Amino acid sequence: MIVFLATLTTSCDKKLEFEPRQNIDATTALESSSDIRSAVIGAYSIMGGGALYGTNLNILPELLGSDNYVRWAGTFQSYRQVANRAMLPNNADITRTWIQAYAAINNVNNVLENLDKVTDVAEKSTYEGESLWVRGIMHFELVRLYALPYDSATPGANTQLGIPISVTAVKAEETAAVKGKRNTVEEVYNQVLADLTAAISKLPEDNGARADIYTALAFRSRVYLAMGRYADALADANTIIDNPRFRLSATLESVFSNKRTSEALFEIEQNDQNNAGTSNDGLTTFYASLVGIGRADLRVNAAFQALYPANDARGKDLIYTGVGARPGNLYTGKWKTFGQNIPVIRLAEMYLTRAECNFRLGSSVGNTPLADVNVIRTRSGAAPLLAVTLNNILLERELELAFEGSRIHDLRRTKRSTGAFAYNSPELVFPIPEREIRANTELVQNPGYL
Amino acid sequence: MKKILLSILGLLLSYSLTFAQSTTVNGKVTAVSDGLPLPGVSVSVKGNPAVGTLTDAQGLFKLNVSANATTLVFKYIGYRQKEVPVSTSMMDVQMDEEQKQLSEVVVVGYGTQIKQDLTGSISGVKAKDIANLPLPTFETALQGRAAGVFINSGSGKLGQAINIRIRGISSVSASNQPLFVIDGQPVISQSLGSSTEPDNPLSSIAPEDILSIDVLKDASAAAIYGSRAANGVILVTTKSGIQGRTQVSVGYYTGFSQPTRKQEFLNAAQYKELFGEAASNMGYDAAEEFEAESGTTDWNENYDTNWADKAFQDGAISQYSVSMNGGDSKTRFLVNGGYSDQKGIIAGNKLNRANGRINLDHSVVKNLKIGLNLSLNKTVNYRVASDNAFTNPLQLNAIPSIQAFIDPATGSLNRSTFYYNNLIDLVEATNESKQFRSLSNAFLDWDIIPSLKFRSEFGFDIVQLEEEQFNGRETLDGAPSGYAFNNQVRASSYNTNNVLTYTKVFDKHNIELLGGVSFQEARTFSTSSTGQGFPSDKFTKIASAAIISAGNSTETGFSFLSYFSRANYKFNNRYLLSGSVRVDGSSRFGSDNRYGVFPAVSAGWIVSQENFLKESTAISFLKLRASYGTTGNSEIGNFASRTLYGASPYADQSGIVFSQLGRPDLSWEKTNQLDIGLDFGLFNDRISMELDYFNKQTSDLLLNLPLPATNGFTVITKNLGSLENKGFEASLNTQNLVGDFKWSTSFNISTYKNKLTNLNGSTIDGGGRQLGRISEGEPYGYFYGPKYAGVNRENGNAQYYEEDGSIVDQDDFSGYSQKVGDPNPEFIGGFGNKFSFKNFDLDVQTQFVYGNDLYNIAGFFQSVNGDYFDNQTVDQLKRWQKPGDITNVPQARLYEGNGAIKSSRWVQDGSYFRVKNVVLGYNLPKSFISRAKIQNARIFAAAQNLFTFTDYSGYDPEVNATYTGNVNLGHDFYTPPQARTITFGINMGF
Questions:
Q1: How confident is the model at residue B492 (pLDDT cuts 50, 70, 90)?
Q2: Are residues B160 and B241 in the same domain?
Q3: Could you give the CA distance from residue B652 to residue B242 in angstroms, rounded to a whole number?
Q4: Does B24 lie in the same domain as B79?
Q5: Beta strand pairing status for B979-989 and B971-972?
Q6: Where are the domains of chain A?
Q7: pTM of the model
Q8: Domain termination residue (choose one: B34, B62, B95)
Q9: Which of A52, B490, B521, B805 has CA 20 to 30 A from A239's CA?
Q10: A20–B651: do the CB atoms touch at under 8 Å?
Q11: How far is residue B859's CA from residue B906's CA, in Å, rounded to a whole number?
């Protein structure tokens, strides 16, 4: 009974301290090198989620350019809207991609703010480089989807509205409530280039499964290409191709069935336990029609398959007739298992970028456009071309990079239309998510949306 | 609580004085009702209360009285006071049960009070009201019996969480369930399991252990529980030992149950008629389409299966209980044991409970008592799938009636049905939820001096939940190689209360002062694993799985440190004043707001004690009372105030990401409540009534404030919103007939008007097919969506209302949404009648809910004029067929979605009146049973949910598809109905 009395007096404030066990308080989360490392990896995990490279940064650009290419047969209304180019501002997928991209950005902004916790100089440089790279590519992905395209005809004067640039670490309500304005497309591209360029100077030669200097170069090449800065895009692509570490895989199929091949410049790592999803999310979920695997929601048009030359493994083997859900239709063979890695940028693209830039500039840095295109073709068993035009190169790019998330971006940067939609049609631009407009009165909605 | 008062009385009376010239009086006190002896009755000399004693266990007393004593006064709680002339012969005193409730003892926070002195609003039930009822869980005993308490069992599944709302709905994002306190300790009442439909840890509490349930409703009563009392507090007191001869009683009842209602679906001929027409209207061949969609040629066969009926089984219930109770002046004990076996009405649903309890108390010395209540329960629940799962048996009603139940090719369950034949799960899958619970507490009562008492309590509540699920390889969820899931949850809570109470009576002043401190700490641990790939269905443990596909362990917890005090003052037996304050600190509150203060004041005026009413023969009691105070809601989540990082793996690397943005000043939600009440009794309390008006203003509602996602976070939870609940409660008790034939009536009715007054401009939508919405200026969860306008008489198109009130065909409809219903009732209540004549008694308790709307989401599939091949409700036969037809059911058009959009088409009035409980009992005559050494024996028949009257066309109007979330009240989605249970039983006392 004395115990009862004792508890009366010993009860004190300390009893009210209760720490969460599955989470840790933000004030103690970033204290050491390994904490910072975890936060960097955390950004990759966000990017690997379904909202970003795990699903949407592939499927949304594909569906935006779906004409004569791919058909959405699924039940998810948000993807159907994109395929129909009739997006509503409350579209769940358009909303989550926006949110998660900025979540990844804030994760690395907090890393950048806490770099002083890292003592090892090389480690510190790596984390800084990775963070800048994440920030750069996330801004790049968003500005390509949520704003009118960068017009290479008016470099430096792309004053159309882009997206808000986020470069400050947020961890409290005061800063989280700040209502940022949309920067211009030009400003966003400048920020992207600044981040990627800084990242290239900080990243190591080889960083295992994570981004290294070549990853950042590859992305910067993509950014330059989108801006029409062909010489710069060419230089970066060429640097990568020249590095003996990178070689095309024997077959294109093996790039997708193996992890981190010599062709990979950046892959989202997945395994059977941790992946973007197996029933309602994930590339394999939406693309595949195999026994027990996939919803078979994205169906390849027969007309698109017909574009591949005879004996081209890309059309013959990498497009198959479904045997699972919605059987009997054509599906891409790039996405067949739930745990496979997702190549986001790979060497073949660098060859095609080099070919296109050389062609446009009339140069043959590294190799001739014809040779570069034929490297890609012959790998898959397509007959080599005897001569190339710009259209040949662009078509080759479509064929090689099909179902990898570059469809609409390549169409728009080259000012080609898709179906009835001109490259700069407002219908091809995502709305700023409704929840965002409500939360931030400073944001101006894109044309054509309420 | 009776015993505490008795011991106080005993103390007061124990020093009986003896006089020189005295005589000894002997006698026995028995109850009029059943002739049983009454132990512990206070016997005193009129005019000289110091001379007195208590009856012993046999009801016997012996008292030395002075020669001039003429009259003895007999007092016993719950019985009418009796005066009997002193007699030298053996006195035979029969006491009548008090019909008026004013002298009842009511359990209040950390103490008890006599009902007539209450200034707060409390309602409740006693053990005798609920004895032998086949209650699914004990809380349902309050349904229809306690004014202001709205209970919706949600579904007829056993062991499911039920919705209890006291005086409306006072939160949007925090819990709306009341605080449960059993024998002084807050207990684990929130769902612990992993199912999308919450389980109910309270289902392990045996109703037969309960002495009383008291519901603290207003601030005056509840504020002593501070930050946890905004949704009201339910105080449960268990029975305890009574001094006297050891009494043994055994009870048994058994019975059967069926669904209260079933819904009617098309038979094969009707099915072919409707779908044949639906197909041909669209230019299809029905047989071809059916084959394409189902992969069978059943359209051309001649099967006729009532699939809807296959969802049900004949329910059964048996309960066995034994109780022993007794003790001497030093030690009292109660031992209860019971076993109850329920087979639910839904295929595969079972719940059994084994329970044991020992309540002991011991007087160490005259002024020091210790006690221990120990209980141990085990509940095994064979659960039914969530409403929205294909494996929910009720979803069988979607299977076309033209499909065979037994596959003629195999002779076993048809596996080629349109939707999964989930009866396969009954054979090849298990879903078991076992709960072990020990709810125990120890206490010490120390009367330091007669006016100053100290009570210390230490309680421990442990719930161990084990969920085990196995699905064979040919079940829907087990394909292709078997699936097993195991989840272990341990929730524990310990609680200490230390309370000092000072009572003093001087002149016309009664004072009670109370002060105390309380501490609670609770933790929940869980571990789960999932395995896939079993050699065969004979292997069911995860040890045999080829792939351990998921594993998890988590821990969470919270603590409360509280200081409280209360003062009650009564002057001249007519003016009452009470005030209380509680200071609550909790780990849940932000570091800048750790402690909250929750005061309440109340006053009462017993007008009938005033001279101008004292002589009134009509008005026997009249009291006015009012209270005002603040309570809180701390069910805001354990760590809502924190800014947190969580782990986020990237393939095989571990990373961290922000998981939450918090505010260090996040606190409880606050409710200020005004209550004005009037209690009166007429004609010697033959008629008594309580009226209450309440106004609950809740502020600091936790809401998610949307943030620009561009800064990395989408929401922050803040104390932002406000809402109100206002309402009236009335309860009336009358003694219509007294004498041999007794008839008493109880009636209660209550209302609440709920309104969201500030949501910071936001609205919360129920999402998907649901209609629920939370929006400023509207009641919680009102229905919002397109309004159905019936059928265009010319072309059979579904029609809807546009904003300007015009009616347009579906093709031209803009999608305009408006308010189309309200799931909140206009009033609820109960009406009960008790009759007794000689050895017979009859108790009929009814319950009603009026003015609420229900929305049957399943209408999208089952009442949609043959839009797809789901079997349809029979009312769909009234479809439009030719120009000029006037009907509410559009033309049948296969695949066309004619009238299939979300709308008020499936909103209906959910009012109902239900004969909730009927108990008919017969006490076997003493003469008959005494030969068998039986003290009393009673046989009875009881019924639960005997009749239901409603216009709702679904299964049962008492429905709440919990999987749809908090916003969506009154939604029905293949939700199983309640059970109508009839039982027969016997109780015997030895």
A1: very high
A2: yes
A3: 64
A4: yes
A5: unpaired
A6: 35-419
A7: 0.87
A8: B95
A9: A52
A10: no
A11: 6
Name which of B152, B149, B154, B97 is nearest B128 in CA terms. Answer: B97
Got the DSSP string for A193-226? Answer: HHHHHHHHHHS-S--TTS--HHHHHHHHHHHHHH
A–B: how many Cβ contacts below 8 A?
A: 203
Q: Looking at CA atoms only, how far is residue A366 from chain B in angstroms? A: 36
To which H or E segment does residue A6 belong? helix A2-10
Q: How close B663 gets to chain A, by Cα (Å)?
A: 7
Q: Give how far Cα B74 sits from Cα of A236, A416, B61, B92, B607, Å.
A: 104, 103, 11, 12, 27
- Pair (B241, B130) in one structural domain: yes
Q: Verify that B18 and B66 share a domain, yes or no.
A: yes
d(CA B34, CA B28): 14
Q: Using the 8-state DSSP alphabet, how is residue B136 labeled? A: S
Shortest alpha-carbon distance between residue A112 and chain B (Å) = 14
**Per the domain annotation, does B176 fall within a domain?**
yes
CA–CA gap between residue B524 and residue B490 (Å, rounded): 6
| Element of type H or E holding B433 | strand B429-449
Sheet holding B91-95, edge to edge: B60-66, B22-31, B91-95
Pairwise CA distance, residues B863 & B871, whole Å:
9
Residues B1 and B621: their CA atoms lie apart, in Å, by 24
Which chain A residues are closer than 8 Å to B713 by Cβ? Answer: 103, 106, 170, 176
Which of these three, B47, B65, B95, is where a domain ends? B95
8 Å CB contact of A11 and B561: yes
Shared domain for B36 and B119, answered yes or no, is no
Residue B418 has phi, psi (to 5 degrees) of: -60, -45
CB contacts, 8 Å: A163 with chain B = 710
Nearest-Cα distance to chain B for A329, in Å, is 17
Q: Are residues B273 and B291 in the same domain?
A: yes
Structure tokens at B227: 């930050």
- CA angle, residues B337, B339, B345, in degrees to nearest 5: 155
Which residues sit opposite B669 in a β-bridge? B633
Give the CATH number of the domain where residue B150 resides: 2.170.130.10
Q: Does domain A35-419 have CATH number 1.25.40.390?
A: yes
Tens of each residue's pLDDT in chain A, 450 residues: 444 444 444 445 678 888 898 999 999 999 999 999 999 999 999 999 999 999 999 999 999 999 999 999 888 889 999 999 999 998 999 999 999 999 999 999 999 999 999 999 999 999 999 999 999 999 999 999 999 999 999 999 999 999 999 999 999 999 999 999 999 999 999 999 999 999 999 999 999 999 999 999 999 999 999 999 999 999 999 999 999 999 999 999 999 999 999 999 999 999 988 899 988 999 999 999 998 899 999 999 999 999 999 999 999 999 999 998 888 899 999 999 999 999 999 999 999 999 999 999 999 999 999 999 999 999 999 999 999 999 999 999 999 999 999 999 999 999 999 999 999 999 999 999 999 998 999 999 999 997
Asked if A318 and A334 touch (Cβ cutoff 8 Å), the reply is yes
Q: Which of B535, B303, B485, B531 has the alpha carbon at shortest distance from B383?
A: B485
Task: Please indicate if any CB of chain A lies within 8 Å of the CB of B365.
Answer: no
Secondary structure, 3-state, B164-231:
EEECCCCCCCCCCCCEEEECCEECCCCCCCCCCCCECHHHHCCHHHEEEEEEECCHHHHHHHHHHCCC
> What single DSSP character describes residue B636?
S
The reply to whether residue A4 touches residue B660, judged by beta carbons under 8 angstroms, is no
Please name every residue paired with B215 in a beta bridge, in sequence order, or none if there are none: B123, B234
Domain coverage including residue B74: 2-95
Question: B34 and B121, same structural domain?
Answer: no
- A76 or B36, higher pLDDT: A76
| Tokens read off for B981 | 């249970």
Structural domain includes residue B18: yes
CATH number reported for the structural domain that contains residue B64 in this entry: 2.60.40.10
